[in-house]
From TrEMBL:
SMART domains: TPR. This is TPR-like protein. Residues 1-38 are annotated as: Disordered. PANTHER family: AAA+ ATPASE DOMAIN-CONTAINING PROTEIN-RELATED, ATP/GTP-BINDING PROTEIN-RELATED. It comes from Collybiopsis confluens. The lineage of its organism: Eukaryota, Fungi, Dikarya, Basidiomycota, Agaricomycotina.
Length: 825
């Protein structure tokens, strides 16, 4: 246990005869780390509006136990029955921050601003009597006043020695008044380190408000100006009043909330008379902490009694309620445990629960807490790995921390793992990132105060979820971690696959029964949004709305941990692929296309072998996602598998078989396999004419696709003839405003252009674009294709300015619609 040390401040100061030739200064908070040895020289703590200078930190540290004794001053005998400060400094001791702590300067700055140092206020008047009268008539109402004569250095020294003998003489609402201060003195050179109270300086020389104290300065209005004096009193009341702050830091486990708080305390111990650290992870632990404090105070161990004592204790204490992650405890934390009324201390609550934000005393006391920035994460990784900061290591570390999305605990653990495993280095860890990162989820760091592995920290929250919420997290962990469309789940749960969607040979398909269990659990008796809200309550998911498509996203580390909770992956992974395919829309609207585009990243998350275990209908839907996004290799593989199954089970002439042949033929064409495409599409067209007739919409689709293949093979004359016929039939059967008719117009215009008929191409494209905008909307992919084609025709005709404007518009709309996500096939 560290020894409590009393600073003999009288011997630490210059005596009153010293000539002070500096302008009036202000005090700055200590930024010395607790690991530094205390010294006897004092320069003064921080006051608002202060000039910056340093202070040695008179704090007692115990490095062996990694705890710090935070007690700058005790409790007055009149308040606590003669307790010595050493007793209180040994209870609920605040842990020492990790020696590897890095970054979070923004968080530390916010906390510093909230628990800001007491202000220094100056008041000027040429009439000394008016200043004295104002002080005695008004300032006393703002707190307990200690008046110091500031005319000379010796006056200041004598009055401080007389009126500020012990720390106990200063309660939280004390105001130190320096009357008639000499502007050449620096008050910080005379105050003891524990005198962390507001200072009110008065003077009859204008320099008092023009110097460094001038940031919070006032000119005393004449006594005839009652309105001005009233405004001054109100301003002083607001500036000097005791601030009551409850601060909340809310984020998922392992982000470093507690470490940031400990770092803040270690940097700013002189702001607080006492620091008490409560374990709020359970009500039983919290009650025991209150009993411990009650015993140290020599009062009743009842929570209510200790709570009342804190309320009446007129000192600038701070209580930290750490890991308030129990929803039931959180509901009673404010009403049963946190001091209420006009208390004089401060409180910080760390929690994973979003509801904890409601405890904050004001909106600015909700400290937004995210992951580390990349630079800080790299430093943290290299510190734990004990690796040098070479250019090569910095690059490797950057790749590793980005893969971990800069989550503090995951980064620390990865570094500790690299250091602990003799066969592991930054190079090997990065090369085997997926495998190594899974191992590190359950790796326990040695020599650190944080007791949890990454996985265990996650399980503290996961274990409190309801069954449906756990299941939804596990399903999401089988998908990509970002931008999971909520509508996909809603489609699957509300519509899903019917019995007719399963061929006789697919009745026992892998994952089908698990899919039915999932739909029963999540889609019938439960509100999906309520389940999502539950995950959000524990900071396990983010809910985003973009273009009317709400999506879910999980932190990469949380996503990996959730996947590790799945015991029977051979059952749930196939079930998730079925849900994904059943939630894929099959329509032609702009909305349907945009949703299929969002599903691309998720179907790409599965192996092709896993996708080939889908139903035939499911594979066709997934193949369409790949095809529309230009992933023709994947589309071709699934389409071949579907065609093979349908030919075997349904026969060559079945409409579904012909549709699959048509789709595969179109994919061949897109991949440049035009000869294969031509053969397939000619067979499809012949069979459709025979089975469905020349006027059937499917027959017209085949005519269109075959004509495109003719164009791709340079057979533009045959293409034009077939497209003329197909466009004429589309207008007759479907009408000029039908999407298929618009597609035919566009395709014929391309053939015109290929044959050098640019005038006819331009007219047809302008008409087609106008109809697309009217019928489909400006953001529809077909509209964008029409714009792009028309721009190309403008350019071919030498109208480059029009072409450029249209191409810029297409690019802007595509970026808006598709985003910047690029996946490599």
């Amino acid at each position: 246990m560290a020894q409590n040390r009393t600073l003999n401040w009288r011997t630490s100061f210059q005596d009153g005869s010293t000539n002070q030739n500096n302008a009036t200064g202000t005090r700055e908070s200590s930024t010395v780390e607790p690991s530094q040895a205390p010294a006897s020289v004092y320069s003064g703590p921080n006051f608002a509006g202060a000039h910056h200078f340093s202070m040695e930190n008179p704090i007692i540290t115990n490095i062996q136990t990694q705890h710090v004794t935070f007690n700058i001053g005790g409790i007055s005998s009149g308040t606590s029955g003669g307790l010595e400060s050493q007793v209180l400094s040994s209870v609920l001791v605040c842990p020492f921050p990790s020696p590897h702590f890095t970054g979070r300067e923004d968080i530390l700055g916010q906390l510093s601003d909230i628990f800001q140092s007491p202000p220094v206020v100056t008041l000027y008047s040429p009439k000394e009597g008016d200043l004295a009268k104002f002080i005695r008539n008004h300032v006393k109402w703002y707190g307990s006043v200690i008046i110091i004569n500031g005319k000379t250095a010796s006056n200041v020294t004598e009055d401080i020695a007389k009126n500020m003998k012990e720390t106990e003489s200063l309660v939280a609402d004390t105001i130190l008044v320096i009357e008639n201060m000499d502007p050449t003195l620096r008050i910080s050179d005379y105050l003891p380190p524990w005198a962390n109270v507001p200072v009110f300086i008065t003077g009859t020389k204008r320099e008092i408000i023009e110097g460094e104290y001038g940031r919070i300065s006032f000119h005393l209005p004449d006594d005839t100006n009652q309105l001005g004096r009233e405004e001054l009193k109100n301003s002083l009341k607001e500036i000097l009043r005791v601030k009551q702050n409850i601060v909340t830091l809310v984020a998922a486990g392992g982000t470093g909330k507690t470490q940031a708080v400990l770092k803040f305390i270690s940097r700013n111990v002189l702001r607080f008379t006492n620091v008490w650290f409560f374990d709020a992870s359970s009500e039983a632990m919290l009650v025991e902490n209150f009993k411990e404090l009650g015993r140290a105070l020599k009062i009743s161990e009842e929570v209510a009694t200790v709570r009342r004592f804190l309320t009446t204790m007129k000192h600038n204490w701070i209580c930290i309620f750490d890991n308030a992650d129990d929803p039931k405890l959180l509901q009673v934390l404010l009403g049963k445990y946190l001091p209420v009324g006009r208390w004089h201390g401060g409180m910080i609550v760390t929690s994973r629960l979003r509801d904890a934000m409601q405890l904050a005393s004001s909106p600015h006391c909700n400290v937004l807490f995210g992951d580390l920035d990349e630079g800080s994460a790299i430093k943290l990784l290299l510190k734990h790995a004990r690796e040098e900061t070479s250019e090569k290591n910095l690059k490797l570390a950057g790749k590793i921390v980005n893969a971990l999305e800069c989550q503090a605990l995951a980064v620390c653990t990865a570094g500790a793992y690299i250091h602990a495993m003799i066969s592991c280095s930054l190079d090997t860890y990065y090369l085997q990132l997926k495998e190594k990162s899974k191992r590190t989820l359950k790796h326990k760091m040695t020599g650190e105060s944080y007791p949890w592995t990454v996985y265990n920290a996650f399980m503290l929250s996961f274990g409190q979820l309801s069954g449906p919420a756990k299941l939804l997290m596990q399903i999401c962990s089988c998908l990509h971690s970002t931008a999971i469309p909520v509508e996909m789940f809603q489609n699957a749960f509300n519509y899903g696959f019917t019995e007719d969607d399963f061929h006789e040979t697919e009745k026992e398909i892998l994952g089908r029964w698990k899919m039915n269990e999932i739909i029963d659990c999540l889609g019938k008796d439960n509100d999906l949004l309520e389940i999502i809200d539950e995950l959000g309550t524990f900071s396990l998911v983010s809910y985003n709305v973009h273009h009317e498509h709400p999506t879910l996203s999980h932190h990469a580390v949380i996503h990996s941990c959730a996947y590790e909770t799945i015991s029977l992956r051979d059952n749930i992974v196939p079930a998730v692929t079925l849900i994904l395919s059943s939630g894929t829309p099959v329509g032609h609207s702009e909305h349907d296309y945009a949703l299929r585009r969002k599903l691309l990243i998720h179907v790409s998350h599965f192996s092709m072998d896993e996708l080939e275990h889908l139903t035939m209908k499911g594979q066709r839907r997934v193949a369409r996602i790949f095809d529309e996004s230009g992933y023709w290799t994947q589309a071709e593989r699934l389409q071949k598998k579907v065609l093979s199954l349908q030919t075997k089970l349904l026969g060559d002439h079945h409409p579904d078989t012909l549709t699959s042949m048509n789709n595969l033929g179109s994919t061949y064409q897109a991949r440049g396999k035009t000869e294969q495409a031509e053969k397939f599409l000619e067979i499809v067209l012949s069979l459709r004419k025979e089975l469905l007739g020349e006027h059937h919409p499917d027959t017209l689709t085949s005519m269109n696709n075959l004509a495109l293949t003719y164009t791709a093979r340079g057979m533009t004359e045959q293409a034009e003839q077939l497209q003329h016929k197909e466009l004429s039939l589309c207008k007759e059967l479907l009408g000029e405003n039908h999407p298929n008719t618009l597609t035919s117009m566009n395709n014929l215009s391309l053939t015109y252009k290929a044959r050098g008929k640019t005038d006819q191409a331009e007219k047809l494209q302008e008409k087609g674009l106008s109809l697309c905008k009217e019928l489909l909307g400006e953001h529809h992919p077909d509209t964008l294709t029409s714009m792009s084609n028309l721009a190309s025709t403008y350019q071919a005709r030498g109208r480059t300015e029009q072409a450029e404007r249209l191409q810029e518009k297409v690019l802007a709309l595509r970026n808006e619609l598709l985003g910047s996500i690029i996946l490599i096939p």
